[in-house]
Amino acid sequence: MASAIKKVIPMLDRILIQRAEVKTTTAGGILLPEDSVPKEMQGVVVAVGPGARNPVGSGHLPVAVKEGDRVLLPKYGGTKVDMDDKREYVLFRETDILAKLE
Is Metal-binding one of the keywords (predicted)? Predict the structure, then answer.
């Protein structure tokens, strides 16, 4: 495998999302352990596939989100993707995304 991933292009209706960073410090400055902090259920769309195949004709059905959109994610699910930067990326299907945030 290559040492550096330059670009990830999801297949079909899959969407690559960067989970929002979880705050590990309280307002008073107390540091919280990572295990006690719940996962953030928001993220930013990093890459979008071309969409699901059109069962009636040729081509693909358009995806409802685009790069840069903020989305609401389910608590569980998705496929974790490890990249060289230490951020958390998850690959979801379009139907798994709960909402688009504005």
Answer: no
Closest-CA residue to 48 (of 4, 88, 8, 102): 8
Show me where the domains of the chain are located: 11-21+38-101
Specify the amino acid at residue 58.
Answer: S
- What's the pLDDT tens digit per position in 7-46? 788 899 999 999 887 777 777 888 877 777 667 788 999 9
Please choose, from the candidates 94, 88, 99, the residue with its C-alpha nearest in 3D space to the C-alpha of residue 22: 88
Tokens found for residue 93: 């299907």
CATH architecture for segment(s) 11-21+38-101: Roll (2.30)
Span of 6-10, 56-60, 63-67, 92-96 with lowest mean pLDDT = 6-10
